[in-house]
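assembly run, all chains below
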Amino acid sequence: MTTAAAAHTPSTYPIDRIRADFPALAQQVRGKPLVYLDNAASAQKPHQVIDTLAEFYRHDFANIHRSVHTLGERATARYEAARETVRRFLNARRAEEIVFVRGTTEAINLVAQSWGRANLKAGDEILITAMEHHSNIVPWQLVCRQTGARLRVAPMNTRGELLLEELAKRIGPRTRLVSVVHMSNALGTVNPVEEIVALAHARGIPVLIDGAQAVPHLPVDVQALDCDFYAFSGHKLYGPTGIGALYARHELLEAMPPWQGGGEMIRTVTFEETTYNDPPFKFEAGTPAIAEAVGLAAAIDYLEAIGWEAIAAHEHDLLEYATARAEEVPGLRLIGTAREKGAILSFTVDRVHPHDLGTFLDHYGIAVRAGHHCTMPVMDFFQVPATARASFGIYNTRQEVDLLIDALKEIIEVFG
Amino acid sequence: MLDDLRDLYQEVVFDHNRNPRNFRKMEDADRTVEGHNPLCGDRITLYLKFDDGRIADVSFQGQGCAISTASASLMTEIVKGKTLEEAEHLFEAFHQIVTGRDDDLKLEELGKLAVLAGVRQYPSRIKCATLPWHSLEAALKGEEQPVSTE
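ok done. output:
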């Protein structure tokens, strides 16, 4: 970080201290300082998370909920404290409304298989949007095949903005669930989820929100949103892989059947009959990702200490700056120009395929994503095979945006 | 240009990417094969015309990165006029070179194609180079199903 670049960020934002918290950032890639702009795929981890994992394994690790010994009790306390941290993070009413899962994908599959199979009949409809990640498409296709329900899709405009009136038109007498992405991973679009929930609830229809991209960038309050399900992953939130959470209203979780059988989720088992544990344990079969849950709580604590307002202001500044500078790059086309947008710059460049861009940028030490971003229908809509995507996080700087733009200009020259 | 990229992105690659050879639809092809790399979205349609056990004509269309476009373009140049056996042999040789399994293989045998040997340093890009060849292999074997690198 040079002081000149730091001067552009809001003066109170502790960028130098934040960057120092992330050991992975302090390395060279192909002889250049790493510029990590692949945060929408997965974010790097601060030492507070790494140390928490290591310390937990060094001192407190044991299996949870069934051991009477000291370590078992310690580990159980840490795991349940992590659940309370996630509850606070989402402002859920009760900790029992937080189910630990592997990530957003598993959360949506859980809802599709448990709630979906119990509530969907032939001819019923699930309504999603045109900008969903495959993980908010395929689980519904699976349950549609099992139940005879139909998947319907609300369209977007060429800026990548959801057409709310079109979504409203598609809410009909057979609609059973609306499942929408909070922030698009391929476009950066932030959807008006409060309005969507209000529209659906006016017809008595529950709403699931895929929050995988949203939670690292903006504060989420499930009571204010009034949503019925909210899913997110820990690894995009500067936390460990293999852990995420599903928020669901308690009455929904109570009524939903288990989706995986095994230990932890039962109350009594005989060969004739099994009775199930209460939520959330009913949905956490087997030994969960204990240390990862504790690590996730450390990540949430870390972000809350920086503050969501500061994070949002910093990332908004980066997005504005990067969007403005992208205009200088000849032949660059932004994919996703929604008015409400998170810190994601998805783009194509004339005559240079995104994969070539990705390989070249790597030689400048710059990590971006190139591909379809698990949103093939979005690529089809914009009639591109793939895009390059720079996605920003709490530790990125204007100086890094400059490095990206300068590198792009050089690469375009080479390809002629 | 960055020196360490020159191993892969040689002038031949840029040339064939800018001006791909045999880049056209073939209306009277004996065999047409679709190739797809779902990882990056690259698509290729390969057209072949046979005459007396030889590849009389070959062309391709599609959209892809510089590596896959250059690989397809170079491939059409080298296999045109070859017998099916010779083409099969080239497929094997090319595959070994880009996957780095046989360092002793004579690169001269592959002519200009040898420029793509550098792709072995980029594991995530090998499929870009092999997609056209897998499509050719499928065409030679008479497979009608679309080819996928996954």
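The two ends of chain B are 32 Å apart (CA to CA).

Chain B has a mean pLDDT of 87.

not gonna interpret more than that til we talk
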